[in-house]
Design goal:
By secondary structure, this protein is an alpha/beta fold. The protein has a single domain (about 10-240), classed as TIM Barrel. About 30% of the residues lie in helices and about 20% in strands. It is built from 9 helices and 10 strands. Strands 1, 2, 3, 4, 5, 6, 7, 8, 9 and 10 form a 10-stranded mixed β-sheet that branches. Strand 5, helix 4 (about 125-135) and strand 6 (about 140-145) form a beta-alpha-beta unit. Helix 1 (about 25-35) packs parallel to helix 9 (about 230-240). The protein is globular and about 50 Å long.
Amino acid sequence: MNFSKKKKPYLMAHRGNRVRCPENTKASFIQAIKDGADIIETDLHLSKDNYFVCIHDASVDRTTDGHGLVAEMSLYDLKKLSAYHGREDYKNEKILTLEETASLIPADRMLALELKTDRFLEEEVCHRLVESLNNTSIFKRVIILSFSLARLKAVQRQASQLPIGWITMQRLIPDVPCQLIGPFFPILYINPLYIHMAHQRNMFVCPLDPTPDKRLKYYLRLGCDAIISDNPGETRIMLDKLMGK
């Protein structure tokens, strides 16, 4: 994760801009790009017919006008749903495939993919994920995220050059081998040396805090490498102000 012309901390858009738009939709990702997000984060599940689809939950109930489990629905059936998250002005939004999402990401931005299912423990699934990324021209700008270290290792076995980011709710020291670590933000108060320790291990740190604005000064003081936000537009404004831009 290195942007030659961008200054840290990098801004990661959590499911796009999910405050202004329905999460994980084309509208959400495009808004986040306009907001100045450096990294677009989304979630990956597999459809019944093994397409990689960008949706957070295991079911479609919360964010669409449908019902059922993603894993039990074909891509055709998923595409018939509106991903509007109850927002009538976004009725035309659809669940996106990985390829569709990748095509939206400009050449100067990165894509973070959070693996949401244990299907990513399967060698064949991980192989197809790597193959899909290779076919999108975004391969060198992808980071793979998960709360499951096993899923991350399974993907890295197929492509050792893919950076991985482990998200943790309780580990107080950054001692897990990965390129990025995402500690639940209270950990940085319990252990203020956390980021220093991570940097000694050549690891990036992005605290798990999708509503970070009240804590931005603290994160800048600690030297966070990236900031995740549900509303990257507002966070970008605050970051730029704090950094004197």
